[in-house]
Structures are given as structure tokens and as C-alpha cells.
């Protein structure tokens, strides 16, 4: 377990929430996109944001 201060935990939660919002936006953009190349970019970036979110969450556990 990591010994994080309350401020560090609060900052992590803020970052995690930001990544979650980015994931939702990128997934929505991908669903509404008619350009296959752009859709792929949105999907790839959404996946990268999910991975970053999960990595940040590992610091809380």
C-alpha cells in the first residue's frame, strides 16, 4: 500500500475523474464519427485514457 497524504489522494481522484471524462468524450466522438480513420484515432485515444485511468487507480489500492 502506498502512503499517500490526503492532498495526494485528492489530486489522484481529480486526475482519475478527468481521465474518465476524457474516455467518455472520446468514445462518444468515435460513435458519432463517420470518417473511419478519425474513428480509429478516437477509439485508440479512448483506450489509452482508460489505461492511464487504471494505472492511476492502482496508486489508490
Give an overview in words:
This is Spore coat protein. By secondary structure, the chain is mostly helical. The protein has one domain (15-58). The chain is built from two helices and no strands. It has helices at 6-31, 36-58. Helix 1 (6-31) runs antiparallel to helix 2.
SSE blueprint and pairings:
Blueprint: H1 6-31, H2 36-58
Helix pairs in contact: 1-2
What amount of the residues lies in strands?
under 5%
How many DSSP-defined strands?
A: 0
Determine the oligomeric state from the structure: single chain
How would you sum up the global shape?
elongated
Report low-confidence residues grouped into runs of 5 or more: none
Radius of gyration: 14 Å
Please trace the helix and strand order, writing H or E for each element. HH
- Compute the number of helices: 2
Q: End-to-end span in angstroms?
A: 6 Å
Q: Indicate the percent of residues in helices.
A: over 70%
Number of separate structural domains:
1
- Mean pLDDT over all positions: 94
Structural class designation = mainly alpha
